[in-house]
Amino acid sequence: MIFRQMFEPVSSTYTYLLGCADTGEAVLIDPVMPTWQRDLDVVNGLGLRLVMTIDTHIHADHITSASLLKREVGSRIATPALDALPCTDVGFEDGVPLQIGGLRLDPMHTPGHTDNHFAIGAGDRVFTGDALLIDGCGRTDFQSGDSRALYESVRGRLFALPGDTLVYPAHDYKERRVSSIAQEKQRNPRLGGDRTLEDFVRLMENLDLPYPKFIDYAVPGNKRCGVCPDDLPEHLREYCSDMAASRQG
Predict the structure, then answer these.
(1) Mean pLDDT, range 68-94, rounded to an integer
(2) Neighbours of 223 (CB within 10 A)
(3) Domain for residue 245, yes or no?
(4) Can you give the CATH number for the domain in which 127 is found?
(5) Which domain holds residue 200?
(6) Torsion angle, CA of 229/235/237/243, rounded to 10 degrees?
(7) Which residues touch 155 (CB under 8 Å, ≥6 apart)?
(8) Counting beta carbons within 10 angstroms of the beta carbon of residue 183, is it exposed (0 to 12), middle (13 to 18) or buried (19 or more)?
(9) Cβ burial, residue 186 (10 Å; 0-12/13-18/19+)
């Protein structure tokens, strides 16, 4: 597997490129609008052909570049089937593999950050979206978030993966790039160790995080697979090349 991890610094989002060396087909997981050209340049520079983009969930802190990339190179847009977005080409489901050339990707329904959130397994690694972050987890106070569901998603599903499975999150705010299931099970301060469900729910209820700065524009834009809303305020109109920071964890 050809693999690249790319970072968008304003929303602290990681975009992941996975490519099949045999067929030249490639997929981008969680692409971000302002960096679409960079991402496409990386794909092309590796001699690959972008055939699909995958969004792990409807993001609240950035707008996906899925539609823009489809327009440029014809890549199919894959989003959770549970979201039933009209702009989706491939609605993926829990336990039903996606095939990119010779690469098998395994969607895992991991609700809690959002009700229709998914992680994506790929061999020895898992792309956890906003559900499991390095030493943290995504918020549960908007978009049908549910702390109890997130606890079960992480501890019941993700932590059931082999300990040496590499964990690649959708965000990190401290320049960390990768973790492992074993590491997160042992030391994740929110969900690791002997943290009980009741402890976790209480912790999440008392985070007192500010309202996400971009959510009212990002969510409608992402429900259209990546469109800057027409009612974007003047001070945010540079969003399509920049973003207002809005931490998700």
Answers:
(1) 98
(2) 15
(3) no
(4) 3.60.15.10
(5) 2-207
(6) -90
(7) 191
(8) middle
(9) exposed
Q: What is the pLDDT, as a whole number, of residue 94?
A: 98
CB contact at 8 A, 15 and 31: yes
Residue 130 lies in a domain: yes
Encode pLDDT of 81-90 as tens digits.
Answer: 999 999 999 9
pTM comes to 0.94
- Within a domain: residue 232? no
Neighbours of 164 (CB within 10 A): 11
What tens digit of pLDDT does each residue of 167-205 get? 999 999 999 999 999 999 999 999 999 999 999 999 999
Query: Has residue 217 been placed in a domain?
Result: no
- The count of domains in the chain is 1
Residue 168 CA to residue 140 CA, distance in Å, equals 20
Residue 147 pLDDT: 98
Cα–Cα dist 29/4, whole Å = 11
User: Cβ atoms within 10 A of the Cβ of 54, count?
Assistant: 28
Count the Cβ atoms, other than its own, within 10 Å of residue 241: 10
Query: What pLDDT, on a 0 to 100 scale, did the predictor assign at position 242?
Result: 52
